[in-house]
Amino acid sequence: MQCLSADQILQVWELGQTQHPIDRALTLLGFALPDRSRQALSRLSIGQRDALLLRLRQRMFGEAMESFAVCPSCGESLEFTLKATELRLVEPSLAEPPAYEWSIADYTLTVTLPTSQDLAAVVDCSDLATAQATLTQRCIQQVSCAGVAIAPHSLPDAVLQQLAQQMADSDPQAELGLDLTCPACQSDWQVVFDIATFFWTELSVQAKRLLREVHRLARSYGWREADILAMSAMRRQFYLDLVDA
Q: Distance between CA atoms of 137 and 141, rounded to whole angstroms?
């Protein structure tokens, strides 16, 4: 995995303007892992994808992750710092995710974990319940009852719910909950931490900062954008300090 250069940060940011968040995550990983095809990355489980994004984010921006939340009870703003290593529950892996065989009630199921391809397939579902059910059914490769093969859509809701829980337990990085306490009213609540959204927000800030630096240096010295972006961050900052002197 390689860190993104200044030019690549701008390329990812520009591409991502018209992409869905699922595609933005794959674009980020595609630049960091150029030897892996987008198709291969889209077949990783969501937990694998997010572990890789956490590793990339840590390499690019460091361990500390400055975060913000609003108390749902009183509206108090809460600022806190997360650590990338503490959020990474599994080691990043590019291995093809395995299929699992589970027995639930009278049913035997062969199941794969949700991938970016699966998430993309349920984006247009009309409601959350339909999306969750469709996502779970997409991950069922085979299902039988008392040795007789049946269609996944014929499974009882109770079995689908238990299956969804087992899938979540098997891919803990896929949905990371943060327990928060409001310092003002002492209310407790939980939020889901989405590394893809968090990382994209940080990268967007960095991209805009780079564009402003290019603008200032190009206007002051007449240099080309490519030449400015090819400089190290330290050298760019030195010239910016001279412009301000």
A: 9
pTM of the model: 0.90
**What would the pLDDT profile of 132-162 be if each residue is shown by its tens digit?**
888 888 999 999 988 889 888 888 888 888 9
b or e along 117-143 (b: 16 or more beta carbons within 10 Å of the residue's beta carbon)? ebbeebeeeeeeeebebebbbbbbeeb
Sign, CA dihedral 125-127-133-139, equals: positive
Angle, alpha carbons 8-12-13 (nearest 5°) = 115
At 93-105, the pLDDT tens digits run 999 889 999 999 8
For the stretch 167-224, pLDDT in tens is 999 999 999 999 999 999 999 999 999 999 999 999 999 999 999 999 999 999 999 9
Q: Compute the distance between CA of residue 64 and CA of residue 198 in angstroms, rounded to an integer.
A: 13
Distances in Å between the alpha carbon of 133 and those of 87, 158, 161, 245? 27, 11, 8, 61
User: Is the CB of residue 171 less than 8 Å from the CB of residue 115?
Assistant: no
How many CB atoms are closer than 10 A to CB 7?
A: 14
Query: Do the beta carbons of residue 138 and residue 111 sit within 8 Å?
Result: no
| Domain regions of the chain by residue span | 6-92+177-244, 99-174
